[in-house]
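Re: the request from the purification team.
They wanted to know what the chain is likely to look like in 3D before they choose a buffer screen. I agreed to run a prediction and write the result into the notebook, where they can find it.
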Amino acid sequence: MTAIDCTDCYLAIEIGDGVRRALVQHFNRFIADRLAAHGVAAPDERRREHVDRDAWRLATMVLDEAENELVGALDEELLKADPQKGAQEILAAVIDASVIAIEQDYLDDARGGFEPLAARIAQT
């Protein structure tokens, strides 16, 4: 029998929809809390669309960072007794750190962050 080269394979971690939904909900609350702190009225349906759009964008940024971080850590985790648990722990740590950094970036971004959103919502 001819030996088959099996080096063309890879393992991947897929982050589930539950994590994505939890991040979007987190950022929705984060933005709504900031709007309330700035005295901007509670979002109506049209305003909520603006908030949702930013929440999805921020959640996607966190997930992109988390996926990149996991790729680098995956090789080490495969050597452990329970690689899935290790990957979940890494994911939780990366998401926590990314959320904090992205929230701050969002607050500081004068062109596409919180202040422009608050101004748009206040005008409607």
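For the purification team: The longest helix spans residues 45-77.
Please add any questions underneath this entry.
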